[in-house]
Amino acid sequence: MLLSYTGMALCMLIFASVAEALGQASPIEKNVLIAFLCLWSFIFGCCIGTFVWTCSAEVNSMRLQIYGQACTTTFYQIFAFGAPFYSPYMLSPKYVNMDTRLGLFYAGISATMVVLVFLFVPATARLTLEQIGDYFASGRKAWRTSTGRNKMIARGDEVDHVREDGDKILV
């Protein structure tokens, strides 16, 4: 998810930068804009669009799994429904008149999502649903998870963890 949102942010930054630097009359500019819009769309469709369904189903504690998936898909659908309504106002010269600078807006959203994913979505690769439940019970922060640690947990190796209050627990 981190790489996907970073790729989307870079695509929109390049999109807006090229449009501002070369101007709208340049044929090179049009080709570059189309290429980066297609790349952005590809990253979104192949990665972010599918993560909504897979991550929301698996990256929740067992107790909150249904509610987590319901909230995630609801917010996803609300924003997917709203974007076609607010984007024309942002492009319109009568209202906001962002033109190709709209790419900066979407780059900002993607960069914000990079930070939020880093802070709140733990690495759960190679873990079973029960082990994911144990992770949530441990109280560890999402940014302190790693695939290497998950491999050790999946193999059954003992992994010591020290909580913030100083108590040592076995994860």
Give a verbal description of the structure.
The longest helix has 32 residues, at 27-58. It is built from 6 helices and 2 strands. By secondary structure, it is mainly alpha-helical. A hairpin with a 5-residue loop joins strand 1 and strand 2 (168-170). Mean pLDDT is 82; it is low at 165-171. It has a two-stranded antiparallel ribbon. The protein has helices spanning 2-22, 27-58, 65-91, 102-120, 129-138, 147-155; strands at residues 160-162, 168-170. The chain has 2 domains: 2-120, no CATH class; 129-170, no CATH class.
Strand tally is 2
The average pLDDT value, as a whole number, equals 82
**Number of helical regions:** 6
* Strand arrangement in the largest pleated sheet: 1-2
Number of domains: 2
Please report which band the strand proportion falls in: under 5%, 5-15%, 15-25%, 25-35%, 35-45% or over 45%: under 5%
Radius of gyration: 20 Å
Which segments are poorly predicted (pLDDT under 50) over 5 or more consecutive residues?
165-171
Outline the biggest β-sheet: 2 strands, antiparallel
Cα-to-Cα separation, first versus last residue: 25 Å
Helix and strand pattern: HHHHHHEE
Globally, the shape reads elongated
Helix amount, in percent?
55-70%
Structural class by helix and strand composition = mainly alpha
**What kind of oligomer do you see?**
single chain
Write the layout of secondary structure elements.
Blueprint lengths: L1 H21 L4 H32 L6 H27 L10 H19 L8 H10 L8 H9 L4 E3 L5 E3 L1
Antiparallel strand pairs: 1-2
Task: From the structure above, extract its key features.
171 residues; 2 strands
